[in-house]
Design goal:
single chain, 3 helices
Length: 105
Amino acid sequence: MAKSLLSAEHFHDEAAALAFIEARVWPHGPVCPKCGETVRVSRMQGKSTKLAMCKCYVCRKPFAVTVGTVMESSHIPLHIWLQAIHLLCASKKGISSNQLHRTSA
């Protein structure tokens, strides 16, 4: 029996979802959304730092891969966003919010 596409790891794990999005948005490494810098950018380390935060040392601004997307200020986890985006794109006639809730939960 074939595995469902929704059984992929990035649909169920936050770190895997972040890696999946970063690989598509930043194929050559992080890019500052403010100034476009790619060289003087590094990942922020620390216990209080959110997952996958980067800092640009040219404009001194922190950023993440979700900056400028609908996921930027959302409290919904990224893996749930990926599930919803996949279901919306894969359905021929669209999908109701109730069906989306039942499937993603």
